[in-house]
Amino acid sequence: MGHVHMIFGVILIILAILATAWEIATQRGLPRALRGILIGLFDLQVLFGIITWIVRRPGWSFIFHPILMIAAVIILHVMTSPSSTRSRRLTGWIVATVLFIIGAAIYHH
Predict the structure, then answer these.
(1) Residues 1-42: pLDDT tens digits?
(2) What are the angstrom distances between the C-alpha of 108 and each of 43, 52, 69, 102, 105?
(3) Going by fewer Cβ within 10 Å, which terminus of the chain is more open, N or C?
């Protein structure tokens, strides 16, 4: 399960970067359905992470990875709603993407 979580995570970071670029490049942002699919995939990744955590049982020094990742997913849910202002959506995508990158870097060190 750990390899699935890792590979899927890299793919999702790339998708988050693309979604952020889309938000920057367009006034209306991501279409509602695409946003829903992306956030659903991030939710699935959290589930994979929980399963990986249970199977591998890492030490408590590893706690910052899941905290950052869950915070990033919460930010996506809260700040990127299509009904939000463009600046709020853009901020949500940028902050979440940065947290994903930092959280992945923590995991790999």
Answers:
(1) 678 888 999 999 999 999 999 999 998 999 999 999 999 999
(2) 21, 15, 14, 10, 5
(3) C
Q: Which domain holds residue 72?
A: 2-107
**How far is residue 26's CA from residue 30's CA, in Å, rounded to a whole number?**
8
Tokens of 66: 């899941």
Q: Do residues 46 and 54 lie in contact, with contact meaning Cβ atoms separated by under 8 Å?
A: no
What the block records as the tokens of 26 is: 């367009």
Residue 6 to residue 48: CA distance in whole angstroms: 9
Reading the block at residue 7, the tokens are 């590979």
